[in-house]
């Protein structure tokens, strides 16, 4: 963290100012307070139920806007019900999985709503996955139906035939199959408890393959009350623009729940483009948008132009806004309020900047601790009595969240993977806490600042990257004998970029173009390492982990005589390291493509 971030403290004056700013939104806040205080798992309230209630109350309001075209709540609900009827006739019911492989569109969103209205689970597949990774994801889902977007043909074509479900549709064939079907709300929607699973969101794990984290309707409703109703506080006349993929919780949970909390409109960007971002915001008449930190950095790196200020955006919601660009971003683009939050797909709580304090990941009223941790393993450290100890106030520590009946963990589809994230008997016999895997710093009044990510994953471009997945891809190239992958900090960027230490096979030479092409074919673009260091040996003894720590500390600036290559982009591949490369990454000039 920067000095600015580390010295930020939240005081009573910050809270008082935030309360004054909240005053105009009191009716909306009061509407959602009950959802924070009491949210029983057996309540007959779900995402589909909330959506169809808004559609009944305000059928003529715009609900979703895509590429400038608006669809009203009433029209959207009728389409959703036709889709649900089609899925139901295919045998989809409560607990079944519908896999959705799509780039952002209105159809993508409406398919998800149709699925959850039936009590089924929407498996939101990351369209960047390929080959063995997407095969693993499809196998994990065990879907009854797959609906895919023709724009994701490359990903779809890489799924082996035997990993496909019984029923497979592309968008056009599914829409055609849904024509003329019933537009009535499915009867089952009104009977579903809030504890029902809503969707699976894929997140990288330390196994090297994605894990599917579970989002229940109840947890989504918590986002609607806590983030949407209490912090974002949209007006029903607002439009929230979503340039992030709908397989992300930022889009599917935070953004959609904020929209439905107010009966507002969600505008969907097909995919993020820094050069065309504000044009799309203006086309879709957006007054707010969701972000990740990298998106904001890319926008700042663009040349100044009139659209920087000719839009109508007054607030933004997201995570990863670097403290050092917070004020610059707000001033350049005329943003009145930045609603930063901290959370994770599998975590059972979230922090949100409800009081509008600068340079904080926000506030959380639920029970959590910031504890001491082991530098090498990234695990919580136990004292001589076998208990955890809190980190001194203001110093970085590992964030853990208490698990209880009030704050349960949805976890992953794999119960053993969930159990690995749970710390038991932490402070007392029988207690249970969820390990976030993240370092944070307490700022006062139950606010935190995000510091870093621990363990065998790192975060880059808003995505969690599993080092073992990248190592597996590298080791699959003919010239590579073994690799070690780790994250390295890049000045003024969110997260950490990938770096690999590579030992070549005997007699082999490094193939810069071939390795890059192989990695782009095997990994999502965000997971391709920016730096490759060629080393003579990699330790494989019991001290291997400490060597990995050492490599991480040396980074790209202390590689000695080892050859160092940097990623120029998809077309150019890896090239010899050059002096301005890090600056090019900081300013979004590299890698290209």
Secondary-structure blueprint:
Elements: H1 3-6, H2 12-22, H3 26-37, H4 47-57, E1 62-66, E2 69-72, H5 73-89, E3 97-101, H6 106-117, E4 121-125, H7 131-141, E5 145-148, H8 153-157, E6 167-170, H9 171-178, E7 197-204, E8 210-216, H10 217-232, E9 239-242, H11 249-262, E10 265-268, H12 277-283, E11 288-292, H13 293-301, E12 315-319, H14 323-333, E13 337-342, E14 351-352, E15 362-363, E16 368-371, E17 397-402, H15 415-420, E18 422-424, E19 432-444, E20 447-453, E21 457-460, E22 463-466, H16 467-475, E23 480-488, E24 497-504, H17 512-522, E25 531-534, H18 544-554, E26 564-569, E27 573-576, H19 581-586
Parallel strand pairs: 1-10, 3-4, 3-5, 4-7, 5-6, 9-10, 9-11, 11-12, 12-13, 24-25
Antiparallel strand pairs: 1-2, 7-8, 13-14, 15-20, 16-17, 17-19, 18-19, 19-20, 21-22, 23-24, 25-26, 26-27
InterPro entries: AMP-bd_C, AMP-bd_C_sf, AMP-binding_CS, AMP-dep_synth/lig_dom, ANL_N_sf
Family: Belongs to the ATP-dependent AMP-binding enzyme family.
Protein name: Long-chain-acyl-CoA synthetase
Note down, in words, how this protein is organized.
By secondary structure, the protein is α/β, with parallel strands linked by helices. It has 3 domains: 12-352, Rossmann fold (3-Layer(aba) Sandwich); 366-403 and 413-453, Luciferase, Domain 3 (Luciferase, domain 3), CATH 2.30.38.10; 458-587, ANL, C-terminal domain (GMP Synthetase, Chain A, domain 3). The chain contains 19 helices and 27 strands. The strands form 5 sheets. Strands 2-1-10-9-11-12-13-14 form an 8-stranded mixed beta sheet. A 6-stranded mixed beta sheet has the order 6-5-3-4-7-8, sandwiched between helices. Strands 15, 16, 17, 18, 19 and 20 form a 6-stranded antiparallel beta sheet that branches. A hairpin with an 8-residue loop joins strand 23 (480-488) and strand 24. Helix 4 packs across helix 6 (106-117). The radius of gyration is 24 Å and the shape is globular. Belongs to the ATP-dependent AMP-binding enzyme family. Residues 51-387 form the AMP-dependent synthetase/ligase domain. Residues 469-545 form the AMP-binding enzyme C-terminal domain. This is Long-chain-acyl-CoA synthetase. GO terms for molecular function: ATP binding; long-chain fatty acid transmembrane transporter activity; long-chain fatty acid-CoA ligase activity.
